[in-house]
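We modelled the chain as a single entity of 525 amino acids. Its sequence is:
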Amino acid sequence: MPKELLIQVPPETAADASALKLHVARHIRISESQIDHITILKRSIDARQRAIKINLKLHVFVDGEPFSEDPIALPDYPDVSNAPEVLVIGAGPAGLFAALRLIELGCRPIVIERGKDVRGRRRDLKAINRDHIVDEDSNYCFGEGGAGTYSDGKLYTRSKKRGDIDRILRLLVGFGASADILVEAHPHIGTNKLPKIIEDIREKIIERGGKVLFETRMTDLIIEGSAVRGIVTQNGDRIPAQSLILATGHSARDVFELLHRKNILIEAKPFALGVRAEHPQNLIDQIQYSCDYRGAFLPPAPYSIVKQVNGRGMYSFCMCPGGVIAPCATSPGEVVTNGWSPSKRDQATANSGIVVELRLEDFAPFAKEGPLAGVAFQRDIEQRAWRLAGETQRVPAQRMVDFSKAKVSADIPKTSYVPGTTSVELGNVFPGFLTQTLRQGFAEFGKTMRGYFTNDAILHAPESRTSSPVRIPRDPDTLMHPEINGLYPCGEGAGYAGGIVSAAIDGEKCAFMAAAALVGVKPLS
């Protein structure tokens, strides 16, 4: 058996295989020549002390002990061309991983995606950034791969109890992601690498007999009695189904409205909302690493802050070291921000959502909307931001300290948000309670991270799509909607996930339950 070690080493040692081998040999008191191989199992950074260390979990093979790299192989997906069909609405992480799991279980997935394929989306993203034109079916949120494709590819999740995280990561490696995601404490793929991985997943689905229909939007659900019987598309086409996995994402407001219109039970759900804050990356490095210069052996520093402010949680969300801020509106007449990083995280700025938890009672001004009250609250802020920004995709922006003083910034430096900024008093974007919490909270953040509270930081508003404002109920045992037989609400849009990995896990769970009902299956290992 290999020796398992938990060690701390300087960053330069962790980055150099020869130096690491020498360190390990000295640590276990043997000669270097006795070490045949070292496998890094886990890697994380400890920046709590001034001398930064890298935590490593290792397997060390010594004295001729045989070792072999654990190959990452995809499952042996069967041909399901003639198998029972399951409709999967949405080709984001939940939908794609549901489709793959269905194939494993002997069912044929028919994936319905309102947006374009991953390459076709690029033209529409360019139109948002350059021409301020929002395509309601093809944007940063809608299209092949969902929001994750062009929004970073962060794979960290706290949802340890939801399912097999390692299985999802290994599948991603099998489809082309770097094996580093199996090792890093906060794995990340990068927006520049995700499109090819998504394409390969789609090709595998098609190769094994599944079907993927792009630019096909569900406009109606066909319900007979209390059971799913199919959908109607925007062209009036009817696609039959007895089983439907609804994985449309947290921004598919038309789907929420459709369900409500058809008296299918949905519920308002709390979420969080705020701004996206951008700092110079070198400033975040200095704060987090307690150094003047990060150096070549450390990655751009992230940060994570949680505070209680005025009785509400205020926290960093989807932090992107070396990243950029993107325009993520899904309809004309609204402004929405999000952030992403390329695989190298080599941009000059760091950004993070800084958001405040909302409660159901906060949606009271929109109570007449019933379970869509949170959607109306969200939309009202996004439309207000659009008007304040001159009815364009330019984003309302303010320097951080100026915001705390309710002072319109005299100037806004160029930020990573390509459509541009408009200097605005951001208190005009948000309800009073939210503005007050954010203003007080940023000063509190500055006490935790000395140097964070600065006018060098630019706030972009709003960061409003943190999670779904709606939950679609489901039976905990069958994962089926309690009123509609064959309808499986799934992923972020249904309120059961929060990110790529948790959405993928939920997609797999729903696929298993759908397959079990159709063909009868036993859990796979």
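As a brief sanity check on the tokenised model: The longest strand covers residues 35-46. The CA atoms of residues 77 and 103 lie 6 Å apart.
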